[in-house]
Amino acid sequence: MRTSIVAVPAPLDSLFALQQSAADTLLVQVCKEDGVVLTLASNVAGCSAQLVRPPSSSPSGLSCDGTQFVPARVFASDVDGSYVLENRHVRVVVDGNGRITSYYDHAEKRELVAPGKAANVMELYDDVPDYWDAWDIEIYSLEKYRTLEGGEVTISKEGPLVASLKFRLSISDDSSLTQTISLSAISTRLDFETDVDWHENRKCLKAAFTWDIRSDVATYETQFGVVQRPTHRNTSWDIAKFEVCAHKFADLSEFGYGVALLNDCKYGHSTIENKMTLSLLRAPKAPDEHCDMGRHRFRYAVYPHAGSFNESNVVEEAYQFNVPLQVLPVNPSSLLAAGRGELPLSQPCFSISGARNVVLDTVKLAEDDKDSYIVRMYEAYGGHARALLTTRLAAASIHKVNIMEEHMEDGKLTWLSRSNTVEVAFKPFEIVTLKFTAH
């Protein structure tokens, strides 16, 4: 189940906006800047569909599930010209250069930013490799950079569902960056939606985050698992790992607390001691002198969490960041199943229980048999697990198959007694692919 804030598509946005005005509900937000209407979608199951209606005129302090709702807010500080984004979970202070000078977790009573340091610091590096401009990054480039100054910050969205700031920065005479820094009312996660007009020559733009966290290793996602790399330079082997390729996240955790840096399309990471950096853009000139020139739009996010990485839900949060809910305008009466009062697909086609370290990654038709379908899962944290996979689709048989969808020896599985559930065992980082055959 997931709860997200979604944009209401036209032509239904006017209905939600009218309800917000009439009921004074906190569960709908009309953004003044662009007129987008936001609302809360609660407890949406995977592989399913759910109706989201305009909130009723029930007390505005209650969320859709009846729990107390605390709105997100943003305001300018009278002390030093900085801005504050706050919800019930965290309080974030952003200075005039778009840098995070404080990130306080209310539940854990924990300051995330290291004393005297900042996060979301834009750094512009000289990037002139010895060979292969578009492929190589050299370690000496890490010593040749400047911190970008002189940004401008204004309030963009004022809540109650999403509070945000607009940050504008001149990178050079030819390049500029515009960023929306957003905090929703329902999460500790801080999102950065970034738009860059990029016209540089052999430069690399990085976003740097210095945390009050100590660990010998950082954790990076790969396909169907994670790898760990040192955060120190004790040996020549450690030094060679100054830039790490990762997929949806990098995580730095100590005992009891950690922070993940999520992204939707940026894969170059570095963690040295307690400083994490994300490589945003490069400007190589060979073999294509116009490589990466022009306009870029991308997103990344900071997600603090209680517990170490293995105790966290970072993998789930990274998936949700990369795969947002799909919202479509519908006529409810035309979709309601006759006599049942529910939507088609209101119940998930597949669900996993009993093992939070198992991810259901793929559901597809079989390549060689259109009467069969494939379900691929994997263990994400490096431990054993026994997961229960439940489906509402009919299947006469279930077989374990390899990645080529060929039956494995002794791979036949059976349903649990009088159920549509099968139990699947996992070894650390194991990928399990099942083939469900209808007849």
What order do the helices and strands come in, and which of them pair?
Layout: E1 2-7, H1 13-23, E2 28-30, E3 37-44, E4 73-76, E5 83-86, E6 90-94, E7 100-105, E8 110-111, E9 119-126, E10 145-147, E11 152-158, E12 162-170, E13 176-184, E14 190-198, E15 203-210, E16 217-222, E17 225-230, H2 236-239, E18 244-245, E19 249-254, E20 257-263, E21 268-272, E22 275-282, E23 294-306, H3 314-322, H4 332-335, E24 350-353, E25 358-365, E26 372-379, E27 385-391, E28 397-401, E29 407-413, E30 421-426, E31 431-437
Antiparallel strand pairs: 1-3, 2-3, 4-5, 5-6, 6-7, 7-8, 9-10, 9-15, 11-12, 12-13, 13-14, 14-23, 15-22, 16-17, 16-19, 18-21, 19-20, 20-23, 21-22, 24-27, 25-26, 26-31, 27-30, 28-29, 28-31
Overall 3D form: globular
- Taking all Cα atoms into account, the compactness measure Rg is 24 Å
Number of strands: 31
Number of domains: 2
Name the CATH architecture of the largest domain: Distorted Sandwich
Distance between the termini: 31 Å
Round the mean pLDDT to the nearest integer and report it. Answer: 89
In CATH, what is the class of the largest domain? Mainly Beta
Described by its quaternary structure, the protein is: single chain
Strand order of the largest sheet: 11-12-13-14-23-20-19-16-17
Unreliable parts: none
Q: Can you tell me the CATH topology of the largest domain?
A: Beta-galactosidase, Chain A, domain 5
Largest sheet: 9 strands, antiparallel
Percent helix:
under 10%
**What is the number of helical segments per DSSP (H or I, 4+ residues)?**
4
Enzyme class: hydrolase
Protein name: Glycoside hydrolase, 38 vacuolar alpha mannosidase
Keywords: Glycosidase, Hydrolase
EC number: 3.2.1.24
